C-alpha cells in the first residue's frame, strides 16, 4: 500500500519530481506516481483526489509548473496533507511558486522551494514519522549523516585555507 502519492502535471516535470521519488526509495517507503493535470485531465484529478485516502495514501506530493493549479485543486478535494512543488517554468518558476503558495484560507498547501522535490519527500516523511517510529529513526540517521558531511566540509575548508 502506497503511503505517499507523487503526482505531476506533465511528464516534463519528472526531471524535477524524480528527486522526491529517489528520497522515498532511499527511505524504503512505498509510493505511487502518476501524471495528473487539473487543466488537462480534470476528471482524473477528481478521481485521484477523492480516492487517495481510501487507497491508504497519507500524504500527497504534487508538482506543477506555470499556472500550477494542480496542488491547490487536489487540496480542495481531500483532507490529506498536500505538499506542492513549484516546477521551473518559462518564467524561472516564479509563476509556479506563486500559483502554489498563495492559497486562500481554508485550503492549505505546504509549498517547498522551486524545484524542491527532495524536501517535499523529506517533509512527507516527517509527517509519516509522527506515527511511524521506523521512519523517525531513519530521519534521525539522515540528519546525523548531514551533520557529518558538514563537519567534514569544515575540516576541509580549514585545510584549504591553511595551505593558501
Ligand atoms: N500546471 C500544470 C497543470 C495543472 O496545474 O493542472 N497541468 C499541467 N501543468 C504544467 O504545464 C507545464 C508544461 O507542460 P508540458 O511540458 O506538458 O507542456 C508543466 O510544468 C505542467 O506541470
Short key terms for the protein model shown above:
single chain, 164 residues, alpha/beta, Rossmann fold, 2 domains, five-stranded parallel beta sheet, 6 helices, 5 strands, 52% helix
Short description:
The chain has two domains: 128 residues, Rossmann fold (3-Layer(aba) Sandwich), CATH 3.40.50.1970; 31 residues. The chain is 52% helix and 15% strand.
Give your account of this protein's structure.
The chain is an alpha/beta fold and 164 residues long. The protein has helices at residues 14-26, 42-55, 70-76, 94-101, 117-129, 133-162; strands spanning 4-8, 31-35, 59-65, 82-87, 110-111. A 5-stranded parallel β-sheet has the order 2-1-3-4-5, with helices on both faces. Helix 1 (14-26) packs parallel to helix 5. The longest helix has 30 residues, at 133-162.
How do the helices and strands line up, and which of them pair or pack?
Blueprint: E1 4-8, H1 14-26, E2 31-35, H2 42-55, E3 59-65, H3 70-76, E4 82-87, H4 94-101, E5 110-111, H5 117-129, H6 133-162
Parallel strand pairs: 1-2, 1-3, 3-4, 4-5
Helix pairs in contact: 1-5, 2-3, 5-6
The structure holds the ligand Nc1c(C(=O)O)ncn1[C@@H]1O[C@H](COP(=O)(O)O)[C@@H](O)[C@H]1O.
Amino acid at each position: 500500500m502506497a503511503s505517499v502519492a507523487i503526482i505531476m502535471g506533465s511528464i516534463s516535470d519528472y526531471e524535477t519530481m524524480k528527486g522526491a521519488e529517489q528520497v522515498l526509495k532511499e527511505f524504503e517507503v512505498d509510493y505511487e506516481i502518476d501524471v495528473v493535470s487539473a487543466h488537462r485531465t480534470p476528471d482524473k484529478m477528481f478521481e485521484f483526489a477523492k480516492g487517495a485516502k481510501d487507497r491508504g495514501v497519507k500524504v500527497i506530493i504534487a508538482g506543477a509548473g506555470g499556472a500550477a493549479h494542480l496542488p491547490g485543486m487536489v487540496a480542495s478535494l481531500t483532507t490529506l496533507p498536500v505538499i506542492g512543488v513549484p516546477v521551473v517554468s518559462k518564467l524561472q518558476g516564479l509563476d509556479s511558486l506563486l500559483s502554489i503558495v498563495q492559497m486562500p484560507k481554508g485550503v492549505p498547501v505546504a509549498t517547498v522551494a522551486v524545484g524542491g522535490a527532495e524536501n517535499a519527500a523529506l517533509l512527507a516523511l516527517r509527517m509519516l514519522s509522527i506515527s511511524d517510529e521506523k521512519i523517525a529513526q531513519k530521519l534521525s540517521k539522515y540528519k546525523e549523516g548531514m551533520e557529518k558531511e558538514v563537519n567534514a566540509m569544515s575540516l576541509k575548508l580549514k585545510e584549504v585555507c591553511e595551505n593558501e
